[in-house]
Description:
alpha/beta, 7 helices, globular
Amino acid sequence: MHSIPILILAAGASMRMGGKTKQLLPWAGTTLLGHAIQQATQVSETVVVVLGAKSELIEQQVPNQVETIVNPNWEQGMGSSISAGIRHLSNLGKAMDGVLIMLGDQPFLDADYLQGLMNEFKKGKHSIIATSYGKRMGVPAIFKLDLVAELSGLDEDFGAKQIIEKYADQAKAMDPEGKEIDIDTMETYHRLYMSTHRKTES
């Protein structure tokens, strides 16, 4: 039985969202973050959300069965949040084969896609299963247990990209088929929300 906990990174201040709290924007009957949590909990028993900016407000909207932690150094960037999340998972004392890291603002990377990453990881042929972004790889990505210690040492805004590049020869890129788009501006949010809403109604 493979155990792969999921870290959802949701600590950013959404500086390009016109003052809106991105994590709490409506999406698919819940919020952007709520939707990410729904997808993650379908494929893993252990899901931890890493919060930072507006953590008290956002935490109130997170289901009780999902654990949240607050990264006090969230302003240092994504690497800092990954490090905080990995250290927390390590302190839980649960056996795990690897860790899946994902963002809270890529709503089209759903449970089926996450399960596909896990299925590929379970074949045991690669230390990293990552998402393809053309010539580079990124998250969502699963990292084998022997790389987790390096993730816990991240402290700058490199995110997981630094580790993926370092071990590129041990990594496999999965094609997200256009679903990898992230929501960084209100313009993008409105466009994607409206297109998704119309599909739901039709």
